[in-house]
Amino acid sequence: MKPNPWFFRLSLATTALTFFVVVLGAWVRLTDAGLGCPDWPGCYGQLDVPNTPEAIAAANAAFPDTPVDIGKGWREMVHRYAAGILGLLVLGLGIFAWRLRKNPGQPWKVPLALIAIITFQATLGAWTVTWQLKPAVVTAHLLGGLFTLSLLWWTTLRTQAMGGAGRLAKTRGLGVLLAIGVVATVGQVTLGGWTSTNYAALACNEFPTCSLGEYWPDRADFDEGFVLWRGLGVNYEFGVLDHPARMAIHLVHRVGAIALTLVLGFLAWWLWRAGGIGRGLGLAVIGALSLQVLIGIGNVVYNLPLTLAVAHNAGAALLLMVLVTAIHVRRAP
Predict the structure, then answer these.
(1) Cα separation of 283 and 289, whole Å?
(2) Which of 36, 50, 158, 300 can pair with 59 through a Cys bridge, CB separation 3.0 to 4.6 Å?
(3) Which SS3 state, helix, strand or coil, does residue 46 take?
């Protein structure tokens, strides 16, 4: 296989931009700028943020429930501009892949599918704003971003041969373990998104206990915490749940972290015992996992500092990319 070097470069650049957009989106959400522009795709009816007295007055009159905050507006619009550029790159990558589809080993089905995926992701972005940060939609938007990132990284890797992968391909049970690891990671990311979008990250403000020295408070309300759909017309900024419901969400996320640590820890050991390149992959899995766990603990201990909170989203993306890399190596061209 002789991959087209320009396709590889474009795919790698698009992957890097996707990682940036995912992290940027987390920063926008965590700085409470998700409704910095109350309409979509513009901002108060224009392509940039209103910044003159006349424009601000007109915007406030048109949207009296969401007065202009220039800082929040620009954070939201920068994210939209970056996402727009990403959409164009994904479109270009899909067209490029289609034109190269007859080349041996050229990935083209996933790049074409990504055009549809990024279109739906843009729709989720619009719903995030127009449905006023509905937790189910915002969580789905996060998962869509990470799914896009994973597929782009997979496409980038598939243009490259990988020496030393034969032993991994022959390791019994590794494919099943990798699949379980990916499912467990996506499940935990979903719980993390639900925790963040319901503003439950500090519902338990102690570690390893939850609150007041209790590991599992009886007052946690699991029924209320996991109602997925509450209808439209509600502004979910800063959350609508009471503390017991948020506490329940946080507790489940902690349990998920323990389960994921066990699953990925076992996967890392299995990769290590395979030898060769598997040892490096095992170290990468355990390293990315350990970093993510430490960041999660730090968010509780240090009262959710913005840097650590954003890093927690970046860590989730990195962990998924490591798992995608392991799957690629096992099935390397």
Answers:
(1) 10
(2) 50
(3) strand
Residue 54 is among the residues annotated as catalytic for this protein: no
**Interval 300-316: pLDDT, tens:** 999 999 999 999 999 99
- Strand ranges inside the chain, DSSP E: none
**Burial of 158 (C-beta count, 10 Å sphere; 0-12/13-18/19+):** buried
Q: How far is CA 158 from the centre of its chain?
A: 22
For the four alpha carbons of 238, 229, 136 and 87, in that order, the dihedral sign comes to negative
Tokens of 238: 């800063």
pLDDT digits (tens, 9 = 90+) for 147-194: 999 999 999 999 876 555 556 767 788 999 999 999 999 999 999 999
3-state secondary structure of 145: helix
Q: Which of 54, 76, 214, 237 is catalytic?
A: 76
Distances in Å between the alpha carbon of 109 and those of 6, 100, 146, 152? Answer: 18, 11, 19, 12
Q: Where are the domains of the chain?
A: 1-160, 163-333
CA 163 to chain centre: 30
pTM for the whole thing? 0.94
